[in-house]
Structures
1.
Amino acid sequence: MKPYLLLLICCLGNRLFEQTIPDSTYRPDFTVKNISFKSANAKLKGTLYKPKHSYAAVVLIHGSGQETRMPGMASLLAKNGITVLTYDKRGVGKSGGVYAGPEVGTNNIDSANLNLLALDAGNASKTLSAQLPNHMPMGLMGFSQAGWIIPIAAQKNRNINFIVLFSCPVVTTLEQLRFQFYTAGNSKFWEKHTEAEAREHIKNDPDRYQFIATDPRDALSKLSIPGLWLFGGKDIQAPVHLSMENLDILKAQGKLYQYKLFSEFGHNTSSTKSPEPINFAIQWIKDFSESRQN
């Protein structure tokens, strides 16, 4: 067995974020158009969701796993006046290129793959930007593993005006692995362990794999755009309180970052059955858009 098959990197991907919203629910309120774009010698396929009246736009960025485009989330955002581009991850669905991940025996959080996925996100943003009026703010919205991808893409693409991140770690990839090996997918982990114990493990546990770590703070420290993180207090995939502490340090340096903790949520902070986090994000985007017009 290849060693990277054992990796647990944000293993929920964005499948949990795609529950229960049928693609056709809000069709009277927006148009849907298939779209494609090139990135690193691959053609990626996606869909553009365009409301009749839009005040902002986002590109949806995947979590880990073999993830296709996200019609449920795109429909919900379009219903609320946000233009959306969602696409199949490279090597998945109808997109070309080669997928990297533990399912195929490769490391999907090494720096080369994260930078490649950030390049895809950047090229998606350029494709979306070409479809928008000049004044409309555009951002990246992502899930889980996108916490490492989005900062890189935002740093390299000046057309990105804001970022929104659901359950995205603000720690290094190696720190994330230490935490996930410790929680081991145990849904009752926080009933038996303390934050102090988790911190101690993240700080001192020997790394099981050796590769160059990616630290999202490297890019986040260079950005001047606003960002919003939505966290679940019972998350066993991402070390939430350490991530919030790292964001506090960046905020103290003048960065325009904000986070919101939903104490009863786990890793899936955009459940349509309990929509508080996604509603909070939509309102945040709307407020940001309105502030740019004043």
Note: The chain is about 35% helix and 20% strand.
2.
Amino acid sequence: MKAGCKVKICGITNLEDARLAAAEGADYIGVVVDVSFSPRSLTIEQAGKIFASPYRPTVALVHQISFTKLELLISSLKPFAVQFLSRAADLIVRAKKIYPGIQMWQSIHLPPADEQVNRPEIERLVWECSEAGADLVVFDTAAVISGSKRFGGTGRQSNWQLVQQLVKNCPLPAFLAGGINPSNVAQAIAFVKPAGIDLCSGVEASPGQKSLNKLRALMTEVRKENAL
């Protein structure tokens, strides 16, 4: 998958950053919607202009959302995909029946690299997602930041050796997230061989504000690695 590694720039909070990500070559942009623990979260109303923009296919990231709220989000924003930060097999089954044209992505969170992980449980979650009809999984990192557990947007790496094996055996396209930045993105793509990378803080000037220089440096490295 390395030759075609895609890039999703997440945590977009404004139209200018959406434009910058697209101009530098990102394949997707991600917007966090009504997620209480995220400093980059927008309301459905605030997110509307970004989802209505022509820049790139836009993914809505949600956490512990009700099906009623999910329906409101989809009807209001018309996202390319919905990415669930919490376990959502039942929601995915229901949503795929009603919204077959919208992709459903599932984040699967691993602990930071220095902590133990229950590999059989992670593998079970992957197959649960596949059977529910998910289109893609994102292997990300969950970590406690300032006393609060955050699912994504942590800037922390998981165990990439484990993720490499999970990606290799995954029945779905798999993206890698967590602690990726311009200095390690080439290593991440070469070693893990994901279908794509998904990152947020690694290309920020400050939370919710993207850095043009970091975006440009990241995409330069991705293009080099994809050309090998």
Note: The mean pLDDT is 92.
3.
Amino acid sequence: MSKILVKDLDGVRVISFNRPEKRNALDLDMYRQLTEYLMQGESDNDIRAFLLTGEANCFTSGNDVADFLQNSELGPNHPAVRFLYCLLELRKPLVAAVSGSAVGIGTTLLLHCDLVYADNSAKFQLPFVNLALVPEAGASILLPELVGYQKAAELLLLAEPFDAETALSLKLINALCSKEELQQTALDKARKLASQPPQALQQTRQLMRPHKHRVQHQMHLELEAFGERLKSDEAKARFQAFLTKS
């Protein structure tokens, strides 16, 4: 069974996390597939928008910690690193449908989406400091810009989970949907994007993101710090406790 599912519908490439036994935790192979499917869609003129979602009423519980620890050298060819930079370089719009857990990368990748929809079961968390790590995906600059410094400090430094209504109030998501309507709502919005004039859509998207190089630089700084933290004694202790608990 593939851990990443993909189907193309009316100009929309729907990419689904499909590892329910691990609450859709992302391992390195899944990162490789995600990047491949996004890059293929970027070069395919028939694909005009992307939709990210999760199977089994879960978006993603974040990184597969054990797999990540075995592959902790965060060079440019590391699958997770390539995925993060791929998100930053996308020209075509990205929509997300969030149900259940959206932890770590499950929340930070939403900062790169154009439209995000969630149901009331969605639970978000940025537990990097809890694991003696630092944020990734440019979250240390994108989140304060979105919600203000004090709220970003609360989310990143206290690292407590928050619900979908809080995410809506923070403008991290566009709208709340019922569980039954979530997937169809997100797909309908992605189809609407796919029906727009593609060049105008992509240029407008680029004009709305004038600080891409600044975010790229911040991502580089984050990854340097993340790699250092992975090797630290306090991170090793936190990971060991996490793996023992899970």
Note: The radius of gyration is 17 Å.
